[in-house]
Design brief:
Elements (H helix, E strand, L loop, with lengths): L1 E9 L3 H8 L7 E4 L16 E2 L7 H11 L6 H20 L6 E2 L2 E2 L12 E2 L5 H14 L4 E4 L2 E9 L2 E9 L4 E11 L17 H8 L4 E2 L4 E8 L12 H5 L3 E3 L13 H15 L4 E4 L5 H7 L1 H9 L9 E10 L2 E3 L11 E3 L4 E2 L12 H19 L20 H22 L1
Parallel strand pairs: 1-2, 1-10, 2-7, 10-17, 16-18
Antiparallel strand pairs: 3-6, 4-5, 8-9, 9-10, 11-16, 12-15, 13-14, 14-15
Length: about 425
């Protein structure tokens, strides 16, 4: 199947949908997603989204982000994210996102490594609230066509620039999507994590194959608190905002062993050390300091999941363990989300714009994704009119993409070799 469009977006989470919403309405857009529309990591975000509450908070917010990132962040990227945050929140409210509020006043919560409350939230399903509202808006656009259960297998390269993608449908059909501009907006990189299992960072593999510049592939964040389970599969996250509201960590003897509001990597290290010391597979999280009513209203989904697993956090401790959560490295991009290949952009978790440094500050991911998705759309708006299709593009050999599992293994080896190379270089 052969398609021609102005922009193709790979991914339908917040980064992909926000990109689409900020592109001109007279441009044709194709979006693809590997599974169904609701199975993006954006839906899983629990805690919230950061915002600059007022100008007096700028220095503290900047320092909190830099400190969490071990000062390996790109300062200009952090500055752009913070100064753009109020505009993004205004956009989201305009799209119908319902943040917690008291009358006309928005409510803020606090998470680890934040010096003050600056996180907007919707119960404990902020990602679902934002992503569902953005998707609803995208579905209304007559210029956007969405293909579910469609996997990108490669990009089309013409004269050194990206000219679209090659994808495979669930029925095995090969799609050649020729596009003036391409946006990678996908996430996930590991099979054992808090992410959906089908999110395996395919864009990284493809980028490595084509010599597109990557950065910090060994910068992987481990979330300190996921609900412990002996069963295989995706780990259920216990939001950091639970600790921000007063939950504490105990060892096997019921003793606290760490400041729960330190950066994620520090808390994770402390938990792992305590587990080794205790000879256990988990530590305990207690919500005893949080009023029962607040647990029921602020964290209803966490409460429900714990009850399903046989734990009542309003009455007892729950077992928690660290798990892979977020990828700070990725495809290196500039301040407009441009990659090293012309006409190719990367936004969201798959990109590396330097905001997060070596370790991400809690609840910066949704904000960063949308700030730089909007910048990608703005960059495309300024260039899209100058691009034309080349009818002489040679079609890819469909046979080379028939065995998608073999192809993914080949791609994955490229990335794993690159991760190992970066580890050795530090």
């Amino acid at each position: 199947m052969d398609f021609r469009t102005d922009v193709v977006i790979v991914g339908t989470g917040v980064a992909g949908t926000f990109s689409a919403l900020n592109l001109p309405k007279d441009k044709n857009i194709i979006m693809i997603t590997k599974s169904d529309l609701e199975s993006s990591d954006s839906f899983l975000a629990q805690g919230g989204i950061c915002v600059l509450t007022d100008e007096n908070d700028y220095d503290n917010y900047f320092e909190d982000t830099m400190k969490a990132g071990h000062y390996e962040n790109r300062k200009e990227s952090v500055d752009i994210m913070i100064r753009s945050s109020q505009e993004i929140i205004h956009d989201l409210i305009g799209y119908g996102v319902d943040f917690a509020h008291d009358g006309d006043k928005l409510l803020y919560t606090r998470e680890g490594a934040h010096s003050r409350p600056r996180i907007l939230f919707h119960e404990d399903i902020t990602g679902q609230e934002i992503t569902s509202k953005l998707l609803a808006q995208v579905k209304k656009l007559p210029n956007v066509t969405i293909y579910e259960y469609t996997t990108m297998t490669d990009i089309i390269v013409q004269d050194g620039h990206c000219a679209g993608i090659i994808a495979k449908t669930k029925d095995g059909e090969i799609m050649h999507i020729h596009a003036k501009d391409t946006i990678f907006a996908i996430g996930g990189c590991y099979k054992h994590s808090t992410n959906f299992p089908h999110l395996t960072g395919d864009a990284l593999d493809i980028s490595k194959k084509h010599g597109i510049r990557l950065e910090h592939l060994d910068y992987v964040q481990i979330h300190p608190t996921t609900l412990y389970s002996k069963e295989p599969g995706r780990r259920f996250l216990i939001s950091e905002s639970v600790r921000g509201e007063g939950a504490v960590l105990y060892n096997k003897n019921g003793e606290r062993f760490v400041n729960e509001l330190l950066p994620r990597d520090v808390v994770t290290k402390a938990i792992k050390a305590q587990m080794e010391k205790d000879g256990t597979n988990h530590v305990w999280l207690s919500m005893e300091r949080i009023p029962k009513e607040e647990i029921e209203t602020h964290f209803p989904n966490i409460l429900q999941r714990c009850l399903e697993e046989g734990y009542d956090p309003t009455k007892e401790c729950i077992p928690v363990v660290p798990a892979q959560h977020y990828f700070m490295g990725g495809i290196k991009v500039d301040l407009s989300s441009k990659t090293s290949m012309n006409r190719l952009y990367a936004v969201g978790e798959i990109s590396c714009n330097g905001v997060h440094g070596k370790n991400r500050l809690a609840s910066n991911s949704l904000l960063e994704s949308m700030v730089f998705a909007k910048r990608a759309a703005q960059a495309i708006c300024g260039e899209i009119k100058t691009v034309t299709f080349d009818d002489t593009i040679k079609e890819a050999d469909a046979a080379s993409y028939a065995n998608i599992e073999k192809l993914k293994e080949e791609y994955k080896k490229l990335v794993l070799d690159e991760i190992e190379r970066e580890k050795q270089s530090h």
